[in-house]
Protein 1
Amino acid sequence: MTASFGDRTKAPPIPQGAWPGDEEIVAFRMYLFEQEKSDATIRKYVRDVEIFRDYIRNDSARGSREGPDKSSVLAYKTRLGETMALSSANTAIASLNAFFRYCGRDDLCVRRFRQQRDTITMEGTELTPQEVQRLIRAATEKGEKRLALGILTLAGCGARVSELRFFTVENVQRGVVEIRMKGKTRRIPIAASLQRELLRYCDRKLIRSGPIFVTRSGTGVDRSNFWRRLQKLAPVAGVDPVKLHPHNLRHYFARMYYKETHDLAGLADLLGHSSINVTRIYTAEDGTWYRRAIENVCAGVLKRDEAREYAAFPDAGEAGKETIKKQHNVSNVVSMGRVMLGFGSNVTISLHQMFCNMLQKYFFKTFSFQNFQTTL
């Protein structure tokens, strides 16, 4: 193909009567490459386009010879929303929209699903400091010192597995690693304790220069291989295998750093995020943290109101105190609901629902989420 792939206006147009074949997809791949997209991004975009192509070809209602139109793209969008998480569906839509625009068919582009960011993660999916320590110890005891240092580095710097190749002897000696990925450059400071461990490893392995994390064949660490080795540590370290994927170590760093500093903008810089909204996902706590906070809110408001009334009526007796407690149920619901609104943008539907469950425990057995919305 002789067209300039860097110029979208020169891309081969989609014929009205046939779905583009391999030539258009190969050209799209080259276009992404010249746009300096990462290898993982290129693979993801191309795979999403190929899956959509197969859907169109296999759709008996449309027939294999007909090309896509807006209705078929919308039907596919609906199917994505029904068969996968909305975040995954939106990434597939982004891939397709990029392809359509490259081909000059902006009329085929569709909107992403609207999705409110949830700041509550599933309970039991985030790593704890104790679990990270056990993983490092288990890898060391198995004689896999490089894996142990890889875990320590990802959890201590927030780097991706693909970024371990930037941890060279020279960078570690300087105490700062410069990472160039996805067309961006960022600098990550290395903790003195991690620096000592890495340099000690280099001395033992006679690594004098260049990348530290390399295999015996001299290649960089592969993400899938790193994942498999993490999974093998699960029974030894006593960690749920569901938690053991490399990116969870990056999440661990983000949560620990944010707890220490509450500096969301600085964390975004360290992680290489262009948007703080993305960084917020990494700092999400699981339901246990929110449940504990809500328990404290409920108990605190109830205790304060009751104490005030008991002081006003010292001779009320036990029966009177019980009446006072019941009279404060409705006002406590409203007060605590307003306290919950103090969480600001962090309050999500799931957090509201959790709050209502607490209200049922403390006050009304029949209190519902609808009651909460109406009362406030």
Protein 2
Amino acid sequence: MLGVTVTQLIKSNHFKNMIPEIDTDNVIITVPDVSRPALPLTGFFAHFNNDRIQLIGNAEQEYIGLMSQERKEEIFDRLCRYKIPAIIFSNNLQPDAVLMQKCLKYGIPCIVTHQTSGELFAELIRWLQTKLAPRISIHGVLVDVYGEGILIKGDSGVGKSEAALELIKRGHRLVADDVVEIRKISDVSLIGRAPNITRNFIELRGIGIIDVKALFGAECVKEVQNIDLVINLEPWDQNKDYDRLGMEDHYEEILGVGVVCNTLPVRPGRNLAIICETAAVNRRQKKMGYNAAKELYNRVTENMMKSAEQHAQEEKEAALVEERRRIGAEMNAQLQHQLSGHLPTIEPDDIPENYGEMERNSCRVESESADNGLYD
């Protein structure tokens, strides 16, 4: 199991070692947790976690002050015989002399810090979880793009380093090239960094090794970064069906944590840097609750629903017009039939001969008489 030495703990957190005679390089911490030995100080050691750092604050110190000399000898001897990794006093509390004797006897580091118990407790757990997190090294490039950690993967020579270099020139920051050390700091979070030997370096085929920090400045490199997105680069395959909508996210599992993964086909003329930038911004939008593909789907669905509603309305109106026409035709036919049986009719034999001619002549004479009277 991976561990961290007490020496690293003291140096990283600026603690004070009260017993320098103890070689803290040989004391290994393997559990990212801290305990406060309230019950063990009373003599109750059932379920005692002796693989954790023991934190003593004001409450424990007050209780120690009330213990008799014989009780201290008994309890501290029993506590230290468990071979705990270290005892840390918060608030600059002075360790008891009997406890320091027992710590020296059994090789238990005794440490003092000015931090309060609450602050120290949280900081120790955070620091230990980072240092003792499960880790793995993978082949790839890690770049900070707009605050999103993008892990670029792919076969050798596919263009990972070239894409990272273009991103650096566009103002983004390199974390690691070729080898990325990944640590699992929680059930949902991964962080990546470069090994010390390759930090700030990029390998470019045909040119060799370049120092990004020396060429582009310190603002172009970063020591550690969360991994938010994986981009797999692969040669273009015209027979493969690539995702063109992005409705659903695809994931790649790293150390048991699912990370959103996009596969980008590589072919001459494609600007990978711009595509990586777009992928980073799109990922941030999805985190904020906006998905462009789903927005397009909603628009298409809404438009289809409106078209269906409009078509249904048109059919309804056409049916209404047709019904009106049918009803009108039926009622007119009925009315015509009713009227045709009641109107008086003239038999053809009763009409005088030349009836129409006589009527026209009469009308012509009357018209001429009227005209003559008008001009008299």
